[in-house]
Amino acid sequence: MRLSVVVPVFNEADNVLPLLEEIERALSPADVLGRGFEVIYVDDGSSDDTLTRLAPVVAAGRLRLVRHVRRSGQSAAVRTGVKAARGEWIATLDGDGQNDPADIPALFALAAKGGPDAPVLVGGLRKKRQDTLSKRLASRFANAVRQSFLQDGCTDSGCGLKLFRRDAFLDLPFFGAMHRFLPALFRSHGHPVAYVPVNHRPRERGVSKYNNWRRGLIGVVDLLGVYWLKRRTALSPAVEDR
């Protein structure tokens, strides 16, 4: 299988089915990716009707569902989905419906071009972020601080739409909130990284699970940790002579 789409969800009962239909519409026509794809939802301990809504599509074989017994966070959910995935490549989307699945083929086309400089991770950059002013300002400030420390070229680390090679991701050190630092982590392990402008949509259903202040305080600690990892990691992909 060529691609696995991994979607962490937490109390997104009204979004899970519309998002699945969008993913199928985006990837099914003319088998745009070759060798098929799968969709994996990772439920991070939802307490609403998320599991009830998903039961029929799981039974129909349209979706694979993995569940956390208790809430573990978005990074843990992404890692759980990647470990369960059968695809060579992983695409991640947020479960709130704000990322547009129609952008996945463009990310994949860039990664699949081949050659030594082909990116191992392609990150989405939201062109017109459809969020509250407070979220946009907090994100702008956080990205500026991140960039001054990590210098990974990523101006929108919070975009949930990313595509990367499964084996390279599983080779990275795991920690909470690592999903916000994937470009820096991939680059520190010697992998080419690229970015693509992507669509961003207003949240139509459900409520946000993030608090700017709490997220910011935790992010400072995470940033210092990633900065230390970056300075202590200087790996280059190995090439085997045959």
Provide structural commentary:
- By secondary structure, the chain is of the alpha/beta class.
- It has a single domain (3-232), classed as Spore Coat Polysaccharide Biosynthesis Protein SpsA, Chain A (Alpha-Beta Complex), CATH 3.90.550.10.
- It contains eight helices and seven strands.
- Strands 3-2-1-4-6-5-7 form a seven-stranded mixed sheet, with helices on both faces.
- Strand 2 (37-43), helix 2 (50-59) and strand 3 (64-67) form a beta-alpha-beta unit.
- The longest helix is centred in the last third of the chain and has 21 residues, at 212-232.
- The protein is globular and about 45 Å long.
- The model has no long low-confidence stretch (mean pLDDT 84).
